[in-house]
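Case study 2.
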Amino acid sequence: MLAKRIVPCLDVKDGRTVKGVNFVDLIDAGDPVELGKVYSDQGADELVFLDITATHEERKTVKEMVRRVAANINIPFTIGGGIGSIKDAAEMLDNGADKVSVNSAAVKNPQLVENLAREFGSQFVVVAIDAKNVGEDWIVHVSGGRKPTDRFLFEWAQLVADMGAGEILFTSMNHDGTKGGFANDALAKLSDMLPIPIIASGGAGEMQHFKDTFVKGKADAALAASVFHFHEIDIPDLKQYLHNEGITVRLD
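Prediction:
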């Protein structure tokens, strides 16, 4: 069985790591490169850096940060935010990123997913999906969760998987920052219907939540931010807990 992955996420705004609740009320959480190095040293499996205002403010992810991250950590990392073309993705990969994540640009132009997969290979392409549960539907949002779209989570996930996405990073906007657990029912449905890895995001608050998303949510990886940034959960302790609970994880 493939090891389940623990993935700290660093939301970046103006060169600083920030964290909020339900995508708003952001507070400073430190330097992203310094935090990334700490997580790498602690045994994180991968890192995700998301420039959460790049699309909204029509900026591109800062290449200098990518170079600094690549120079200071030794685990794979994904860069997202403002990537809307082959050229944007190539700049991130050329500067040291292992994968690129697309979200708003893919919703606007689904062909982008297929173009990226064809150019770089599916293993380099992560499609991030931010969705809010409204009644019986999960509505996909873009621009850092600011704008609802006419896309629905499961249909959209199926489409991007068919177009060559290598992974899906699903964030439940309802659960984000609440520390009440992941959206395991939706995650399990995604995992059952798609042949590619699913990364769970939104809702981590205690170690049990990680176990639940791997068992009940059938997620391949679990992403979290504030519980790591503010030392509520330490990665070595989390991995030992998961190992003791029978979850296959990489132990250093």
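Residues 5-244 form a domain with the TIM Barrel fold (CATH 3.20.20.70).
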